Amino acid sequence: MPPLRSTGVGREAENPEYAGEYRLGACLGAGGMGVVHLARSASGLRLAIKIVHETHASDPEFRARFRQEVAAARRVSGAFTAPVVDADPEAERPWMATLYVPGPTLAEQVKRSGPLSPAELRRLTAGLAEALRDIHRAGVVHRDLKPGNVLLTDSGPKVIDFGISRPSDSDVRTETGKLIGSPPFMAPEQFQRPREVGPAADVFALGSVLVHAATGTGPFDSDSPYIVAYQVVHDEADLTGVPEELAPLVARCLAKEPSDRPTPDEIMAALKPPSYEAAAFIPAQRRPSAAPVPDLETRTLGKRESGSDTTEAVGAGQPTRALRIRRWPLAVVAAFVVTALAAGGAVLARQDGDSVPETRRQPTAAQSAVGWQTHLRAQGDAAPSCAASDGGLICTARGIGAARLDAATGKVAWSRPARVEDVGPARVPVGGHVVTLTGNRLTTFDARTGRPGWSADATGYFADAVPCGDVLLLGSASGTVTGLDGATGKPLWRHPLRGHSAPRLGPYDAATGLVHLFEESAGGRTLITSVRARTGEVVHQRRLAGELTPAALGEDGTVVLTSRGAGSQVDAVVRYDPALRTSNRVRLPSLLENPGVAVRGSVVYLLDRVGTLVAVDTAAEGGRDLWQLETAAGQVSSPVIGPDGRLYLSAADGRLVAVDTGRGALLGQTKPRLPGGRLRYASALSAPVVLGPLVVATAPDGSVFAVGAADPAAW
């Protein structure tokens, strides 16, 4: 253990300088069990490190409880908690490092600014209910939910401190005579039957937390913890000051009997009418959005009826009955219904017991900017993958080879099924065709009509075929590269490239007609070859220092490559100009894990797989750091820059996130979209698509959805 910074008998004297390999910085807070310090990892991530007090480190029972805390925190790490980065419960002074989440605790916010507004309270209720749902689905009961353990962030509330939590199926029991928890936020059974505490105790605590957030005091209030305990067990909760529309729900949470309390799912369902947002705590200075209204959700028949404008559903080769499009606000729907009734032409007919065909007009451009949502009947957790194609969207999902959606309305023009095990992202567009890989064959569909096109044998080729305008490029393990005509599938050229034994295909530059291939070589160098996609002619070739991967293209024809250092983490970007044969290497402020890259002007944006977003300017020699943002989005897609200069990304729980590239600040996000509301995340993520006034994203519940780009704060 490193030497202590000071000596003496006070608590400050016990503070070590390091926890494991992490040098400790400012003290973020202290409690009865430990002290929390700010620190940085070797890659530059900001961490919150909890170190057990020296007096507890020698207590075997406490060490067992701390090991349980580490295990519980790791078990539930996700969208609503601070992920565990590292821990050593066996150290001389046990410690745990989690990702630092900036933002005040709910206790600090209420103390500083007073009770939350009704709108903020609804968002907090929804966020905490969703957090408890996911914590409980991980098999953990928190048992100490209180305002001090709730962080308020732009990405929603985060639940922290699993110090007394335990798995719901654990055999660990509270010792007789020991009261563990915070009395004002404990459930009656925690005082009466501590061995029987289950998930319902967290729901009771949620009710107490909401009363505190709404009023500044708890539903049971006394200076004596013994009196508070008596009130919790015997007295009715004081809900004075709780907004009238939320009071009945809070009262149900505070029921004395666990079986009488709602589940987190029931809480979220109760919040939906008239509005439900599982989004972030939004500071008061944020501009409020228009009051939300419920969407009209229509389940349509798979077959178009004569004279109607219903939408064809998408299924895996089955009658298409499960497509749902959710796109019009209630005000627009009401206006439409009034107009239709006046004309005597509004007819809704229920058929087959569960489908409602509906006649509807095409939305105007202004209405389209409101957004839409289309569900693809996909299988598994993978989100659909979509790309822009000639005024529309081509999407694919497990069980769906390809489908074309209208970009303005989400309406499905055509769809084609595919075997689940064969489907990968569709390559679009290539010579007016959508290309998919089925078994060892490339199959195509006309991008406009969906009619079958050409097919070709792909045996021996890598799966990462690259569309290059009207040419499809394929690479093989033998080092041969082949260019196919996208319109006919006929080979245009096929030959190895000089200097390469197994080249990998990089990005295609439509402005120059060049595709950039790369291959690492001996001595820590990378061979970059620029090839004319139509003819296979080698135009530029150069070896650059480092293990490099082409990741994005600049508007000026330059290629941005990521450079991997120790541990295969990305530590720099290289901007390479093939025409001038010049390069500029820019070191990153922190190491990144497999980042996606976007470029705008001279600025490069790198988003790593755990949500760290870094911006560096590559204009000057050596470049300069601009900003770094922890999006707290977890697993993410590649970033996309819109014409408005904003950056968009998709999170694995189905959220679409917008970032201000000038300030490096979050602007807004949509709600999570998970299959059946269950805690499952997309195994593959498609980058958002910016189409005029809309941003289109996909989610693991099988939905493709669009939102207006003008005001992310209103998402």
Question: What's a quick, concise take on this entry?
Answer:
Residues 22-282 form the Protein kinase domain. Residues 286-315 are annotated as: Disordered. With 715 residues, the chain is an alpha+beta fold.
Please characterize this protein's 3D structure.
- This protein has 715 residues and is of the alpha+beta class.
- Among the domains are: 21-99, 2-Layer Sandwich (Phosphorylase Kinase, domain 1); 106-271, Transferase(Phosphotransferase) domain 1 (Transferase(Phosphotransferase), domain 1, Orthogonal Bundle), CATH 1.10.510.10.
- Strand 19 (433-438) and strand 20 (441-446) form a beta hairpin.
- Helix 4 (118-137) runs antiparallel to helix 6 (199-215) and helix 6 packs antiparallel against helix 8.
- Residues 1-13, 165-179 and 273-369 have low confidence and may be disordered.
- ATP binds at residue 50.
- It comes from Streptomyces solicathayae.
- Residues 22-282 form the Protein kinase domain.
- Residues 286-315 are annotated as: Disordered.
